[in-house]
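Section 4.2 – Deliverable D4.2 (structural model, holo form)

The reporting period included a commitment to supply a predicted holo structure for the target in complex with thiamine diphosphate. Inputs used:
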Amino acid sequence: MATQLDKTNLLNAYRTMKQIREFEERVHVEFATGDIPGFVHLYAGEEAVATGVCMHLNQRDKIASTHRGHGHCIAKGVDIDAMMAEIYGKRTGSCGGKGGSMHIADISKGMMGANGIVGAGPPLICGAALAAKFKGDQGVGVAFFGDGASNQGTTFESLNLSMVWKLPVLFGAENNGYAESTGVKFNVPTANISDRAAGFGMPGITVDGNDFFAVYEAAGEAIKRARAGGGPTLLECKTNRFFGHFEGDAMTYRAKGEVKDLRERCDALKIFSTQVTSRGLLSQEEMTTIDSEVKAAIDKAVALAKAAPNPTAADLLTDVYIAY
Ligand SMILES: Cc1ncc(C[n+]2csc(CCOP(=O)(O)OP(=O)(O)O)c2C)c(N)n1
Ligand SMILES: [Mg+2]
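Output (structure tokens):
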């Protein structure tokens, strides 16, 4: 573990990953009650990716997310009360309850939006990065996208254009092994998604996406290069999802015991805890304290969301146009 993060940053990393895990485990339970409308795709298992990348970003930097966006939002600093309310479709939600899980956005935090269109994030972030480049403000853009999205034409065009224009972008491929029910071996012919970067003359790297430190280091290098005008990077993080593609997915395409095994062997939080305690960087007690604080914060977010009002009919006519 070459990274030398100070204690405050290590605690922040753990807190962010724990918030994502607890948020998702709770949404899983609450969704089953039938109170949450719409579709929900959970990010549990992939925490180290969003956290390891977003710890390098400031509020001016932009991220484009996916349909599996809760983890990206939390790692980019979106308020969890507003997120939970949005997921419940309530008026106090980050988008006034009009977006739901798959459209959470908070421009004030540089979170340009979850997105139901697979492969829509890469072109979107090229626009944000082009704006940063014109302004000369050293801002960067990160597009998170899945192994499935890595096959979309929009993604290839973005890799190409960003390289031609030397845009300050990090393409964060979250290879969780599945696009809905299709295993990655059935649709990606190369050993690594990052191998494709060479076709665009772009640096490409694959890391263990369950290892926070591996993601943090590789993302840090790429983002530093982007800020300095060195252009984009394709960073592939091999990771796992602990739930189905969407809530309600019977997961008949997964082997019996697969998720249980992943939770035992590839849990980013367990791996992080072992790494920091074995090196005497953090104590178990320090992390247990964070666990209780996070649990209380999620309890509060759910209670507030449940008690919040629904949007009204008049709300249909607001937020339709935006004035720049
Ligand atoms: C353009 C488009 N095609 C197909 C779909 C249907 N769809 C939704 S999620 C998904 C799979 C995405 O897989 P991946 O990119 O690996 O992301 P993951 O769900 O694994 O995070 C598909 C095909 C869609 N939403 N948009
Ligand atoms: Mg996938």
